[in-house]
Amino acid sequence: MQNKITELFNIQYPLIQAGMIWNSGYKLASAVSNAGGLGIIGAGSMYPEILREHIQKCKKATDKPFAVNVPMLYPQIKEIIDIIVEEGVEIVFTSAGNPKTWTSFLKEKGITVVHVVSSVKFALKAQEAGVDAVVAEGFEAGGHNGREETTTFTLIPMVKEKISIPLIAAGGIATGRGMLAAMVLGADAVQIGSRFVASLESSAHENFKLKVVETQDGETELTLKELAPVRLIKNKFYNQIKELYTKNPTPDQLKELLGRARAKRGMFEGDMDDGELEIGQIAGLIHEIKPAAEIVKEIIDEYESVKRSL
Questions:
Q1: Which of 169, 170, 178, 219 is the right S-S partner for 137, CB 3.0 to 4.6 Å?
Q2: Over the chain, what is the mean pLDDT?
């Protein structure tokens, strides 16, 4: 399955595990990399020294390439970037911010840079900033999302039409069939998040993993657009948001309800009522918690099988 992305990252399959907060530690990243994909450590929920620890442990757990995802709005981003350089990380995925800020610096250090976007406009800006590839993430995705609400099936061909660098599709992909569909639309690879939440190696709380497996069609929604759009499972906290919206709240009132560490409370500590439970619409197709290597194998096997049948 060699193509632009497998060559860029030196991996076996064009399959990338998303760098999700509270879910993507070194155990998941190394397991996906060992299975032939590209594992990513999610720095967004880690203090700088915790990230350093995860990078060092990931190096011991795999001799394959892996990456670190860095949200550009991270308050300690300078320290994070310094650690990435010091520890010799070779691939960085940036998100939630201006790619021009760090792309040149990282590339000068010999690091491959990928930026996550939600629109054609931002894909072009990322390309102009000099990134090596972009992840185009559709509205179906879990966690923080684009304001445009463009779905993956429309976003991928529109981005493909405008850019010349490799394209990675994300949002609503958890199966081999979904992977094949994205590739047919023009993607060179897929980035998968929600499916790997429900893996043995995910650092998410067991309560959250089980909740993801139980989640059905229509049980997630994109909300809090005035702050930063985020797709959540509908629970007690979500219902409080819904109730507050009936009163035309100000952004400050929404911030007050959100409080601090709400995502940690839900996904990492297991509070299914008052926590923020970030997952994609594709959760309705996730029925079992499995080892990450088994998930990768199932996706690739189905991709190859369906491709042959067509």
A1: 170
A2: 95
**Would the pLDDT of 144 be above 90?**
no
Q: How many residues does the chain have?
A: 310
The confidence score (pLDDT) of residue 97 equals 87
CATH of the domain at 19: 3.20.20.70
Containing 251, the helix (H) or strand (E) segment is helix 251-258
**Phi and psi for 129 in degrees, rounded to 5?**
-75, -10
Global confidence as pTM: 0.95
Q: How many folded domains does the chain comprise? A: 2
Q: Print the domain residue range for 22.
A: 4-203+285-309
Residues 302 and 273 in one domain: no
Residue 296 and residue 228 share a domain: no
The residue with tokens 């949002």 is: 171
Enter the tokens of residue 131: 């990134």
Give the C-alpha separation, 126 to 85, whole Å.
21
Beta-strand runs (E) in 106-152: 112-117, 133-137, 143-144
Lookup: tokens for 194 = 């929600």
